[in-house]
Amino acid sequence: MQSKTNLEISKPKFIFITGGVMSGLGKGIITSSTAKLLQLSGLKVSCVKIDPYVNYDAGTMNPMAHGEVFVTDDGGECDMDIGNYERFLDIAMTKDHNITTGRVYSDVIKAEREGKYLGQCVQIIPHVTDAIKNQLRKIANEEMLEVMVVECGGTVGDIESLPFLEALRQIELEDGHSNTLFIHVTLAPMIDVVGEQKTKPTQHSVQELRRIGIQPDILTVRCKTPLTMDTIHKISLFASVKEECVISCHDTMSIYKVPEVLENQGMLKSISNKFVLKDDYPKWSNWKAIAKSFCEYSGIVRIAIVGKYVTLQDSYVSIYHALLHAGANIGRQVQITWIDPEEFDNLTKHINYLEEFDGILVPGGFGRRGSDGIINTANFARIKNIPYLGICFGFQLAIIAFARNVCNIEGASSTEFDPSTTDPLVKFMPEQQTVHNMGGTMRLGKHEITIIPNTQASKIYGTHLIYRRHRHRYEFNQEYQQIMEKHGMVFSGYSDNKRRTETLEIPEHKFYFAVQYHGEFNSRPGTPEQAFDAFIKSAVPKS
Ligand code: GLN
Predict the structure, then answer these.
(1) Which residues contact 382 (CB under 8 A, 6 or more apart)?
(2) Which of 238, 272, 290 is the last residue of a domain?
(3) Which end of the chain is more exposed for a tag (fewer CB within 10 A), N or C?
(4) Mapping DSSP to helix (H, G, I), strand (E, B) and coil, where does residue 319 land?
(5) Which entry of 392, 407, 470, 475 is annotated as an active-site residue?
(6) For the chain, what is the domain count?
(7) DSSP per residue, 267-315
(8) What is the pTM of this model?
């Protein structure tokens, strides 16, 4: 635990972040940035995401509808905002930091079956709200947090979020005004023709919040350009929030600039007015320099991401950030083009288009659709000597591409999309044979990987042991290892006593590296994950 404390008392304080007007306002970034400021002021802080949907976790949701499934060290399949918290705070979260209606109800029903509520009629208030409060307090106490920032997903007024907001309101009642603080995130749209920032959506959304008994202390208002004094005055009056607590959250060049935007308007002072922080200023350390590195570039690197879920870029949000981290690290802006692999399923199509890019990345994916296009992509990158980074599915399909085109194993395939293949280069993991439920049953979370000396992987990582997160059911079939090696592929990383293959490389290629794990979840601004770093460095065009 941190030795120095910024607060007088040991009881954890809570900041609750709610959302108004509409989704997609960047509540996760505001949550992360607020927590970052508190961390920079010397406090032990962490974040929790409440997702009011009934799913137990994000693992079974469609990435094209809900965005990436972020995997934690302990194998949690979480909402993508957990990734923002990790990137901003550089703390490994656990799955408990993502609370869903599904998890809460499942705990309550389990307790009811165990007889923990004998004789009682189990109700939303107090039983469900108690379960929510207990879960939040348990994390805060176990992790000895001084401040816990809790983001409530959804928009105020949604039916699903009501029990959660009610629980947060009760915490304020029980812990007192000086230990709890509500930040409400809203929007001040600008109507182009009028050129005026409109405050009505914010007014209505605050009214909705008040209707359920919550008066926000701070409003962070999303807007294109900084809020004018007029707008701030009007919002302050109608929402009954002090002017200095109406904070303009205007567009920035990088999300890592948001802590500065908030702090320039006195965010920590406003929090301190309630919490009485000893140090209500951040010790920026290298954070400002890191944020600046995402705003000033000396050149670009063009990367094609050929992935199944590109219609929603949030499907690959950690990959996107890992690439940006790697670019910023060497003063390069990474320009990403999102390509659906189905475009290359049939080679009569324009795969040569990929030659325009400095590097090609194939991220994770599931199922048959687009797999031919990915295999063609992996092969094209190899033939054309274009830097290639394959992640999970991008690792498995690079194996198939190499087996088919270099080792002449024409029928090489994966049992994932060709169950009766004669040459299962990629096969179902033996442990998965007995698995029937789909939720939470993949090979998940952090595993130790041994890196073979004198390989590209050992150069990339500079160590013989790494720990990375996983999320898969299929793996390389090691029966084919010899023939692949004979033709020039090197397998340079293993796990589970060499029983599982984790990395591959082609030494004579400019950069051809693929991994079974998801390094993107470990990438941080200022310290990109090493494989992403090496990939971007290899892709920098020679001037
Ligand atoms: N579908 C593959 C598997 O389950 C790859 C998973 C992934 O890319 N995350 O093994």
Answers:
(1) 388, 398, 401, 402, 405, 406, 506, 509, 512
(2) 290
(3) C
(4) helix
(5) 392
(6) 2
(7) HHHHHHHHH--S--S---TTHHHHHHHTT--SEEEEEEEE-TTTTSGGG
(8) 0.95
Side chain identity, residue 75? G
Separation of 505 CA from ligand 1 center, angstroms?
19
Alpha carbon nearest to ligand 1 atom 3, residue = 472
Gyration radius (Cα) of the chain, Å: 25
What is d(CA 429, CA 475) in angstroms, rounded to the nearest whole number?
6
**Confidence (pLDDT) at 4:** 47
Separation of alpha carbons 147 and 143, rounded Å: 10
In which domain, by residue range, is 233 found?
A: 13-290
List the one residue out of 47, 18, 22, 23 whose CA is nearest residue 33: 47
Catalytic residue status for 518 = yes
pLDDT digits (tens, 9 = 90+) for 3-45: 445 555 568 999 999 998 788 889 999 999 999 999 999 999 9
Helix (H, G, I), strand (E, B) or coil at 152: strand
Q: Which two tokens stand for residue 128?
A: 């469900």
Instruction: List Cβ neighbours of 381 (8 Å cut-off, separation of 6 or more).
Output: 354, 360, 387, 388, 512
Does 3 map to a domain? no
Tell me how far apart the alpha carbons of residues 417 and 369 are, in angstroms, rounded to a whole number: 9
Q: Based on the domain organization, do 244 and 362 belong to the same domain?
A: no
Tell me, in angstroms, the distance from the centre of ligand 1 to residue 443's CA. 10
Pairing of strands 474-476, 423-428: antiparallel
Question: Is residue 418 domain-shared with residue 527, that is, in the same domain?
Answer: yes
526: domain CATH number?
Answer: 3.40.50.880
**Are 280 and 368 within one domain?**
no
Q: Is 392 a catalytic residue?
A: yes
Separation CA 436–CA 455 (nearest Å): 38
Residues 6+ away with beta carbon under 8 Å from 110: none
Q: Own/partner pairs for 346-352, CB < 8 Å, 24+ apart?
A: 346/372, 347/376, 351/376, 351/377, 351/380
- Tens of pLDDT, residue by residue over 237-293, are 999 999 999 999 999 999 999 999 999 999 999 999 999 887 788 999 899 999 999
> Of 290, 322, 338, which residue is a domain's last?
290
What is the Cα–Cα distance from 110 to 108, expressed in whole angstroms? 5
CA of 411 to the centre of ligand 1 (A): 20
Residue 476, helix vs strand vs coil: strand
The separation between CA 234 and the C-alpha centre of its own chain, rounded to angstroms, equals 35
**Cα three-residue angle 35-248-67, rounded to 5 degrees:** 55
CATH number of the structural domain spanning residue 189: 3.40.50.300
E strands in 173-245 = 180-187, 190-191, 196-197, 218-223
